[in-house]
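Look over this record as teaching material.
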Amino acid sequence: MITVVGTGTGTGTGTAGAVTAAGPPPGGPDWREVSLAVGARRHLEAAGIPPEVRRVVLGPLAPALDAIGERLTAARAGDGGPGGRGGRVVVLASGDPGFFGIVRALAERFGPRALDVRPAVPSVAAAFARAGLPWDDAAVVSAHGRDPRTAVNVCRARPKTAVLTGPGAGPAELGAALAGTGLRRTLVVASALGTAGERVERLSPAEAAARTWPETVNVVLCLDEDRLLAPAARSLAGPPRPPAGWALPEDAFAHRDSMITKYEVRALALARLGPGPGDLVWDIGAGSGSVAVECARLGAAAIAVERAADGAGRCRANAAAHGVDVQTVHGAAPAALADLPDPDAVFVGGGGRELESIVSLSARRARRTVVVTLAALDRVPAVRAALGAAGLVADGVLLQSSRLSPLPGEVTRLAAGNPVFVLWGTRPTTEGAPA
């Protein structure tokens, strides 16, 4: 049996320092039966483990799992371990080890029935408690041992996010990525939760970016102070469900002289962009920002790039009207794209003399796909070539649609819209690997 004990986040079983050689607290292990203890160095040092118990400090996960496997195999063969202490293994971890923790790896390797999990208060729950906030409506994302861009994009898109931090993905990095976006965010940094050195600080992204932070940071809450509470009681935890539909009608957006991506075209573009939580989408030549807003409604972080000042204003107004966060950049592409973070997907609307350069740059930087809409046949070959030159697999359609239109006498005709080329390029992925 492997006993997994959560430590270090306050009240609950297995709090830091409570697991001692003198005897277990309620829910804690009896060290007289333990021959191997695994955990971070700080957890092992705080637990008062008897010197006869072998310790394995968690760094790379594979050696620790191998050591556990060897001890269990020896126990099954009748080897009780050093001093005949028994074959029990104890793994110490922060908070709730079943929440983005080591329980997953242990269950995959040894099976759930081999585990006796005794969680403490999750660090996310403790951080929200210190902030005086409920968290059933929060998005939770782990940046520990993972690419921090996912955490950053969720913080951009959601008004209430908890980030489990890690080396290279702490308050300074999150703050640097969020500062200057124009999005209203406050960071609540919770350090050393459940210890005498616990500290909870509330500061701006720019302030967080300017600081050097200790390794004891547990979690960062990224909050929009104006949207801290869900408007109604929840029955399903987590962020709001994505909308039941998309490709909203044009009159759902403020726009100028029908200069907006028509909903039929937008539907196909969204299908090819595939926006979702953790993604970042550029909407270049945004106009009204309809594509950016729809991507944000589906949970993605979105940046609308628009060269006209009145157009940029409409992008902001439409985002506010739909209750989503869209960073709006007033500037002309491709120059305005230089300092933006790399996107997962890009939508390019309209033409212009810089179209080929814009598509080429977008195709080089997009992690997944680029979608381009065109009215002019003459531009199709150059766009396809730009997509292909960047290593994307190019495809597309000519989209022609006719809407039902009423006529006098209670009859209906078909009103044809202008045909639009919808081209896209998709980055090939290795079979079995995530996109």
Q: What stands out?
A: Residues 25 and 83 are 23 Å apart (CA to CA).
